[in-house]
Amino acid sequence: MGKKVEKALSKDKNPSSATHIEDEGSNKTPEPYKCIGNFLTDFTELCKQNQMAVVPSVLVRPKPPGPQGGGTEGKPEKKGDKKQAIPEPEPEPELNQDGEPIEPPPKTYSTRDKFEYFKPSVQVELDNNDKWDTVAELFVRGWKIDQPMMEIFQQCLPTLDKLHTVNFWNTGLTEATLHTLASFLPQCVNLKTVLLDGNPIKEENWYELIGTDSLIQHLSLRHCKITDKGAAGIGSCLGTAKKTNTKLVSLNLTGNLIGDAGVEALAGGLRMNRTLMALTLTSNNIGDKGVAKIAEALSRFPLTHEEVVQRRRLISDRGSPERNKSPPPSRRAESRDRPGSVRSMTTQDKTKQKPSAKKKEVKGRDAKEDTKTLKKEKEDTRAGGKRGSVVLKTAVKLIAHASVAADAAKTLGKTKEKKKDKGKSIAQEAENMDGHDQINPLLEVADYIDGQSWIAGNRTLISLNLSRNAIGEAGLTSLLKAIQYQTTLTLDSRSNGTGLMRLVVNKNNVNPENEVLTKLNEKMLPKDPFYKPPLTPEGEAA
Predict the structure, then answer these.
(1) ∠ CA(106), CA(112), CA(116), 5° rounding?
(2) Phi and psi at residue 98, in whole multiples of 5°?
(3) Given pLDDT bands bounded at 50, 70 and 90, which one contains residue 534?
(4) Which residues, 6+ apart, have CB-to-CB distance to 77 below 8 Å?
């Protein structure tokens, strides 16, 4: 009986130990998931690891159906008519209560459940429909992206090599989520376009998106309730005397609450920015004062004190590029108080006059041996002193010629390498068009008028949309003067730009038949690249 009781007790103990091991395993934190570049797998696994109650589905963005039938598709159908089976008879149409046939639903769309459309989902566009590692565009619309979800995107998106567009429409962004988004977007190497329409943020920290590390080229912030505060932050990041944004090409601020103060800040950014080419300010609260500041930035303007100081610094650095270079540490250590180019002879004599005791003993032993050699050298130098001086002069000349030849050989080698890598260099220059390749606007030729330095304004901006604002005749007059100045200004180089080519000022506080407005439209029509002149009766363009 005793043995049976012991066996029963041992059986009871074993499962308890197993459950204890299971409890210990459940308490252990799972290892962090490493993204592999497959967005479907990475996104679902990270959502499960964060224990989300609802995991948004990842779907390929639906596209409108192509045209049914066509000339190209008709020929194969004719060839295959012989092999086709007999078509089935069409089903009889359903009849309503009155006995009339009911029209079937169109075949251009598919019906779904009532609430399925409103479920959160992430829509993507793939370069290759069979591969989820080729996500090119990402769309999130109509559901809130909280901080945990933004952290999941922070892990997923940088691993997508082909991602170039991110569209978060009406996703309830906050200051924290926008900060997280701006922190990891520079890690997406090929990301060019960011659309954050319909995301009002009280703190208005939009400037974080276009910082010094930003790679965004096209930014859309429509209907985000941006006020003068947010516009001031954006303007400061566009350009100042010390730093400018060299990536952003187009900026859309339609449907916000920007007034004259905010536009003045944006115009301040346009003074030094030479990259932005399209600016859209439709449906804001812009008046004549704000437009006058934009016109000043586009025509010419006097430099402020900060800009004058920076201009002098740039000119001095360009004139003496080695001015800021420090001498080598060996010279500085010897000179202590004096610069490296000036050396004191007295300090050298003092060091020679005060040798240590060990050095004295060594010198005493070698002095006798050196006197014999010195006598012989003196006799040789007396006899051939003239020859020695001639040899020294010729040696110096040869060294000089050798250094010149070496420099010439280096330059020849560089020119050969440049010729070989000419195609590569052109491609790299086209890809790396940043601020280092462009001329700093502060280094342009300045005109001194009434004690102030005036320089030419921004000629890189080619598209400006100011429709649906509160601009009057005074604002249009300032724009007209700016465009007239741009047309008469001679361009020194291609990098300076061509000036405005498209200007939209419709639906402002001006009569459509206003004289200034008609002059402005006449001035801008020939510059508009989309404008087609009317044809004459002979068939030629007017």
Answers:
(1) 150
(2) -85, 0
(3) confident
(4) none
